[in-house]
Design goal:
By secondary structure, the chain is α/β, with parallel strands linked by helices. Helix content is 31%, strand content 14%. The protein has 18 helices and 16 strands.
């Protein structure tokens, strides 16, 4: 699932700033600012930028460039450097296509960079919590640098790290010659977490107090780390925003050509798709594609055994690989391998996950922004069209039950009714099922973001009759600096910043002056997050979002996928 965003914020030209510093000058009539901060990492020194209340270090490499022979290999250590490396601007974004509309690929394969935002590093005191952010974008686009976490650093006293990771075919490709599908995107994130463990204290942070958090594909990434053996010990708390381990989407719910959306897929399927793609790209033979469903036991480690097809693919230009079809096809995380031995939602149900506190939630109107982008091509204008959409997505019995539970006459129009039931089926109820599984073993906290007037920071035009309200990703401006907020929304943003950073610090989301957030023991203990008097309160979303229906019938009773 992809969340479409514009770039948030901009930086002053680093070259002009460097010239001023080199000349030792300051503008007439002003006092010189603090010196630019320099931190020595385990690979070399970096010079960031001082912003008064916080410092930033951008474009810091955490792994070697995965280019040439390192394409589709697990990340290796970044080379050390001498002298001081400038860290005043973000590094390249990973290769990706525009999230909407035509256009060729942008970015670079040399993209494994991270960005650090911290309270002034010169102000030494008690070590601060670390929050490591994994961006969304459906594993097809996005980057760490658009997210400006200065509020989390200044108000919350956290050191925040935002991370680039390989996307699409570069990050989630599989092939029998690779031993299957090693999930390079997840491995990149683990390499970033190892960088944090090695370097956090140099930025005034505690390497023993690391919270991973993410939204959409970033939340699915957090889910992967909760169940991945290779992530053990790399983090100590987790925040899952709109992308639980059980996230799904009914078939043909957005477009008639789309099947059921499942973000996690068996490794053998990815390896088979990779062998078939290699044939189409002139780097394999049809027999090899047929053999892809069997991954040889002796080639379980990426790069082991014969790699003639993969060597051929590594010689191809990135542009020939970054096609819409290939970037979309290889945007699912594979399980049944060393990275994810078990399907994540099953691992949660069976209690096979890392024992760390978890905060997890969704927005109230998740699917509105997605449905809004497809209504022109696949409209739902009346009761007959609404019923037809249900019959395309579900078996006959489930379609009748859904229509009875979501009668179209009780909503402003059929599009709102459809978006509501898809939000419940795809996000809200799966998230609550996961919360039930988590709460049996670890402290768990649930939320629903419900500001129906949240600003639209996606850059997408709203569709008449379908206000986006509290849609997918619309909580992000309350945590990251982006679009302006009204006064009641700024108060909510302060409360949310307090909750998120308190959880990162102690494992308990307790914000000063804010209502208490109860530990999740049943769906009736979920915290509603909205501005205004009574906006923050405990609610029971299972009843409001018809989860008894979805827990009984979906995804077990899906129509043909």
């Amino acid at each position: 699932m992809r969340l479409l965003r514009r770039r948030w914020g901009s930086a002053l030209p680093a070259a002009a700033l460097s010239l001023l510093l080199a000349a030792g000058a300051a503008p007439a009539g002003t006092a010189p600012g603090p010196p630019e901060p320099v931190v020595t990492t385990d690979r070399g020194a970096v010079r960031g930028r001082a912003h008064g209340a916080y410092d930033t270090f951008e474009g810091v490499p955490y792994a070697a460039a995965p280019t040439g022979p390192l394409r589709w290999r697990l990340p290796e250590a970044a080379p050390a450097w001498r002298g001081v490396r400038e860290a005043a601007a973000p590094g390249a974004r990973c290769v990706q296509l525009p999230p909407l509309g035509p256009g060729g690929p942008s970015g670079s394969e040399d993209c494994l960079f991270l960005n650090v935002t911290a309270p002034p590093v010169r102000d030494r005191g008690p070590l601060r919590p670390v929050m490591v952010w994994f961006h969304g974008g459906g594993f097809q686009n996005g980057a760490g640098d658009p997210y400006r976490p200065d509020r989390l650093a200044v108000r919350g006293g956290a050191v925040v790290v935002t991370v680039n990771y390989r996307l699409g075919i570069f990050g989630l490709f599989g092939h029998p010659e690779l031993g299957g599908a090693p999930n390079f995107a997840v491995a990149d994130q683990q390499a970033a977490l190892r960088w944090v463990r090695a370097n956090a204290e140099r930025f005034g942070a505690d390497p023993g107090n690391v919270t991973v958090f993410g939204e959409s594909a970033g939340a699915l990434s957090v889910c992967a780390h909760l169940v991945s053996p290779a992530s053990a010990g790399l983090f100590h708390r987790a925040v899952v925003q709109s992308g639980s381990c059980s996230t799904t989407m009914p078939p043909r719910s957005l477009l008639p050509t789309l099947g059921t959306y499942e973000p996690f897929t068996p490794e053998r399927r990815t390896a088979g798709d990779g062998a078939a793609a290699a044939v189409r790209l002139g780097c394999g033979h049809p027999a090899g594609a047929a053999e892809a469903v069997t991954v040889q036991a002796g080639a379980r480690q990426a790069g082991a055994g014969q790699t003639r097809a993969v060597d051929c693919l590594r010689r191809l230009d990135a542009r020939s690989l970054a096609t819409p079809e290939l970037m979309r096809r290889f945007s699912l995380v594979s399980y049944g391998n060393a990275s994810l031995p078990t399907e994540p939602r099953r691992a949660l149900r069976e209690g096979r996950f890392h024992r760390v506190p978890v905060m997890q939630g969704t927005t109230r109107d998740e699917m509105r922004v997605f449905l809004g982008q497809t209504l022109a091509a696949f409209p739902v204008t009346d009761r007959a069209a609404y019923r037809a959409r249900l019959e395309r997505s579900f078996d006959a019995g489930t379609a009748r039950a859904v229509e009875a539970e979501y009668p179209v006459d009780t909503y402003p129009n059929p599009a709102v009714a459809l978006a509501t039931l898809l939000s419940d089926a795809s996000f809200t109820c799966p998230s609550l099922r996961d919360a039930d599984a988590l709460a049996r073993h670890v402290p768990t906290y649930g939320y629903v973001f419900a500001d129906g007037d949240a600003p639209n920071a996606t850059g997408l035009p709203e569709v008449p009759g379908l206000p986006y309200a509290a849609s997918h990703g619309f909580e992000l401006p309350y945590l990251f600096t982006s679009v302006p907020l009204a006064a009641p929304q700024r108060e909510l943003a302060d409360r949310m910043t307090g909750y998120w950073t308190a959880f990162a610090r102690t494992g308990i989301p307790a914000a000063a002056g804010a209502p208490a957030w109860p530990r999740y023991r049943s769906p009736a203990s979920v915290l509603n997050l909205a501005p205004g008097a009574g906006g923050i309160r405990t609610v029971d979303p299972r009843a409001a979002h018809h989860c008894a229906l979805w827990d009984a019938r979906w995804p077990a009773a899906a129509g043909p996928g």
